[in-house]
Amino acid sequence: VWEVGLDVDEDGDLLASARRGLRRVARPLPGTGRARDVSPGPTGELVALRHADAGDQLHTLPLPAPGVDPPAPVRRTSFPDHTWLQGPAISMDGRRLAVSVFRGNRGELWLADLPSWRWERVPLPFADVLDPAWTADGRLLATAVVDGQWQVIRLDPDGGGLEVLSATLAGASTPWEGPGGDLWLSEATAWGFKASRLPATDLRPTPIAPAAPPPRPALPATTPPPSRPYRARAIDPALGPLLRVDAGPGTPGNAP
User: Fold this and answer.
1) 35 contacts 49 by C-beta, under 8 angstroms
2) How far is CA 180 from each of CA 50, 107, 153, 227, rounded to the nearest angstrom?
3) pLDDT confidence bin for 66, thresholds 50/70/90
């Protein structure tokens, strides 16, 4: 993570002096090596994922005063090894954080209450859940595989409704709520990805059951056949490979 100090004019434009001195005023924050997905936290700190050889963990990075080195990052998760995290998102009121957690070939959605950092898993009937993003009314957007394709879903983290918002043909990703409740997303096409906007007035949410899918039925019990002892059998000696064709009655070598 790099800290960059920039000078702007009254219109918010970057001053020429700042552009020239950009390399001079940027500095890496100590202790933030291999950090990614950085976002501002609810109390002024940074929230970031840090990667290690055994997996990811989420950390908070206190912002230092100018010219003062920051304290060490604070680890906020204790997931087991070989866990990978994606897309941390903080709610607009600063009370919750959502992140995708990959363990055992399954992507799950986890929530943390802030500032206690108490974590809980959100049970959803999908094999993978990605790209969490909060709406203005405190609901969550995400992407999940619905009927064989990645679509945008919306859910109430307090146990309310679960809905599918998109019906893309080639898959959706990175949803977020725009002004007026419009849905923005990245959509796969034959020419690559494109940004798409679905007006709030055109959304047709499709409710789906929030419960987990039913387990597969157990196979019926079968009785194995009785076992028979092995029998020894002498093998006729042979001098080499031999091909034999029995043509039956008629001309030798022709099939009847």
Assistant:
1) yes
2) 34, 30, 18, 73
3) low
